[in-house]
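Sequence, please.
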């Protein structure tokens, strides 16, 4: 389906750039190519970008540092590309604010599926914002879906794109237990190609940001063997 979305593709290998640009352009996306971290940041500032596909291993500035800097100024969706076995990079990428990751080698079918899912979710988020859902308040924690802001006892909390979606999903249904699979589907639109433990990383980071003591949470509870739930409002 034709689209006007623009994707910043950051990878220093010409073969990867060629391999991924062709199917993206065939699907109707605009593609901006960057081959090192500094060029990626410069091009991001110069163009309107709807999604960043970012390799971890880059010259000049690595992908993790680029992800960190992009997230400090924008909520643009970021998909990290990692080599097989780079578990630490996957976790770090998610904690720095990446929305998703794809492990090399991957199929073009999987790649296209991830791109569509992330952009579809971004569109849904924009639509929700226009609907101006009411704010959610629970014991000092305030979530404003329209502004996509979170405060704890009046102090602003900076959440990544996905962290906000996970928190909002849980808080919309206090007391309801979500399996990891259900959260993946609620946040990404599907759970294809994704590891359920991805949710654990986001939950851990959320707790570090909003809980007075992450080891003794008062907002997001673990339901052992099942998943997670937000505190009851009653």
């Amino acid at each position: 389906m034709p689209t006007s979305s623009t994707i910043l593709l950051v990878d220093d290998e010409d073969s990867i750039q060629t391999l991924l640009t062709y199917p993206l352009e065939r699907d109707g996306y605009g593609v901006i190519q960057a081959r090192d971290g500094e060029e990626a940041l410069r091009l991001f500032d110069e163009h309107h970008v709807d999604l960043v596909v970012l390799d971890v291993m880059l010259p000049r500035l690595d992908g993790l540092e680029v992800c960190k800097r992009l997230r400090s100024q924008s909520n643009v969706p970021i998909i990290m590309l990692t080599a097989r076995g780079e578990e630490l990079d996957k976790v770090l990428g998610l904690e720095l604010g990446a929305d998703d990751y794809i492990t090399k080698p991957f199929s073009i079918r999987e790649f296209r599926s991830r791109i569509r899912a992330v952009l579809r979710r971004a569109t849904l988020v924009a639509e929700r914002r226009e609907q101006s859902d009411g704010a959610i308040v629970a014991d000092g924690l305030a979530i404003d879906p329209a502004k996509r802001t979170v405060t704890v006892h009046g102090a602003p909390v900076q959440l990544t794109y996905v962290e906000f979606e996970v928190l909002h999903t849980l808080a919309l249904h206090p007391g309801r237990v979500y399996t990891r699979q259900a959260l993946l589907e609620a946040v990404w639109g599907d759970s294809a190609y994704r590891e359920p433990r991805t949710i654990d990383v986001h939950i851990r980071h959320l707790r570090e940001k909003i809980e007075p003591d992450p080891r003794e949470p008062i907002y997001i509870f673990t339901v052992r063997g099942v998943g997670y739930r937000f505190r009851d409002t009653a």
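The mean pLDDT is 86.
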